[in-house]
Design brief:
The chain is an alpha/beta fold. Helix content is about 40%, strand content about 15%. The protein has a ten-stranded mixed β-sheet with strand order 1-2-3-5-4-6-7-13-14-15, with helices on both faces. Strands 8-9-10 form a three-stranded antiparallel β-sheet. It is globular, with a radius of gyration of 23 Å.
């Protein structure tokens, strides 16, 4: 098992020429000037070779490719900048430029958001559509986590505690007027980061939005949760942790390899992925370029994965999925106890997808039971009906359902529009009025968390294929 990563790299090197040959041969049977294009079965041969190329090629980290957006109907240029560069993460800023002075002034007055992307297998570009929508009405920053195999071992380890400190540093850099949005895995460390800042008496963000994350993984456990809860920490260390091969800068670093994570993603819904690839083949045969492009765009992102630092991965398994340390009130970050009840001046919005098969129903909403120090009128929750895990931050469900509510929630609690819990002297928006305008649900009175060790079994939400999730 210790040589698995090396075996994978050898296989990848052997398949690379085959992938390029398949790509060139596919074009030979599809290019309009090629005589082979007019032979019998040429569309099927070309489609088969194209599919072979995509199944055997290596997928590099995609780019955000956000160069412009429309704000108030005006085309606005966007430049990607690096605000902070750390060994394991870059803080990116998407700065907008416009020649229209009234529009430029209006954009400068818009809220600032920090999107904390997950460090759980995929690159931060998975949130490309999230960023693009947010840029219409916000100044946007995002965490861009580094592939661990590219970080030299001399830099040292990266633990879950370090993740929390990174988030705190980014919040301090942007300033207390920021609105923090965490998607999936980072909901837990983001809540910890803001809790620790509140316990120290620091100013905390205006709002925190948590989307599809395992705040309390005991609730409605999914296949992902069950694997993490039913295997020992030693099992994970002995079966999924490997050293980076010598052909990468991070040679000899212990990691949870991206190719193993990708295998796990596929294994969750193998029949759906097989059907999706067959549909892609048929789309190519029929000449349906739009559907084929949809497939390639999705899988270019889905198949691009990164290695996670082993110590961070094992910390997450133990803290979030085995000890349930956050909800049990036993989590300490470098000696400081994480106390979400100390948060008082940060409004909270949680978002869950009805068909989320990664973070089960109620897992994210559990944050409201922890943040008892925040006035109840600043607790909001939204269930995205029909949305899977990816649907709450990309696709039609995100654009038409989730984003408008998130935008209104941020606007209602921004210092220039309304007051968050007793932070400024501006007149606060009434809770009932805020809920009516945004379409969000006020969360009822919450109780202080009670330590419970045993998992709570509840009915799982139905599964949806990645292709359908993306479409939603």
């Amino acid at each position: 098992m210790s040589m698995l990563y090396q075996f994978y790299e050898t296989q990848r090197a052997l398949l690379s020429p085959l992938a390029e040959f398949a790509s060139a041969s596919s074009k030979l049977y599809s290019h309009p000037l090629s005589p082979f294009t007019h032979t019998p079965q040429a569309p099927r041969v070309s489609a088969g070779l194209n599919l072979m190329h995509r199944l055997s090629k290596e997928y590099e980290k995609p780019e955000f490719n956000i160069h412009s957006i429309k704000a108030d109907g005006v085309e606005v240029a966007v430049q990607q900048q690096v605000a902070i560069e750390k060994p394991f993460c870059r803080l990116l800023r998407f700065k907008r430029f416009a020649d229209d002075m009234p529009l430029l002034k209006a954009m400068k007055e818009q809220p600032t958001v920090l999107v904390v992307a997950p460090l759980s297998g995929h690159h931060s570009t998975l949130l490309r559509e999230t960023v693009r929508e947010l840029l219409q009405h916000h100044k946007v920053y995002i965490t861009d986590w580094t592939d661990a195999r590219m970080v030299p071992v001399e830099v040292g380890p990266f633990h879950l505690d370090d993740y929390v400190e990174y988030v705190q540093e980014f919040i301090r850099h942007i300033g207390p007027e920021v609105h923090v949005i965490s998607v999936c895995q980072p909901t837990v460390p983001v809540l910890a980061a803001i809790s620790l800042m509140a316990s120290r008496g620091e100013q905390t963000p205006r709002t925190m939005t948590m989307m599809g994350g395992p705040i309390d993984a005991r609730l409605s456990p999914t296949a992902v949760n069950n694997l993490a809860m039913n295997k020992s920490l030693d099992w994970f260390e002995n079966n999924v942790i490997f050293r980076v091969p010598t052909n990468y800068p991070g040679s000899q670093r212990l990691v949870y390899p991206g190719f193993m994570q990708h295998t796990g993603f596929i294994a969750m819904n193998p029949s759906h992925h097989a059907r999706s690839h067959y549909d892609y083949f048929m789309d190519l045969v029929r000449g349906d370029g739009e559907s084929a492009d949809f497939h390639t765009n999705f899988y270019d992102e889905y198949n691009a994965v990164l290695d996670m630092p082993a110590e961070y991965y094992l910390d997450t398994i133990k803290t979030v999925f085995q000890d349930f340390a956050l909800v049990n009130g036993t989590w300490s970050v470098k000696g400081e106890l994480v106390r979400p009840q100390d948060i008082r001046t940060t409004a909270l919005l949680t978002v869950e997808g009805e068909k989320d098969d990664i973070s089960g129903a109620g897992q994210t909403r559990a944050a409201h039971d922890l943040c008892t120090g925040v006035d109840r009128k600043h607790h909001f929750h939204h269930d995205a009906m029909g949305a899977g895990h990816y649907g709450i931050f990309s696709g039609r469900r995100w654009r038409e359902d989730v984003y408008p509510r998130l935008r209104d929630f941020i606007a209602q609690h921004d210092s220039r529009r309304a007051a968050a819990p007793k932070r400024t002297r501006t007149k606060p928006v009434a809770a009932s009025e805020a809920a009516k305008v945004s379409g969000l649900k006020l969360v009822p009175a919450v109780q202080a968390p009670v330590p419970v060790a045993a998992p709570i079994a509840r009915k799982r939400a139905p599964k949806a294929s990645p292709k359908r999730q993306q479409a939603k």
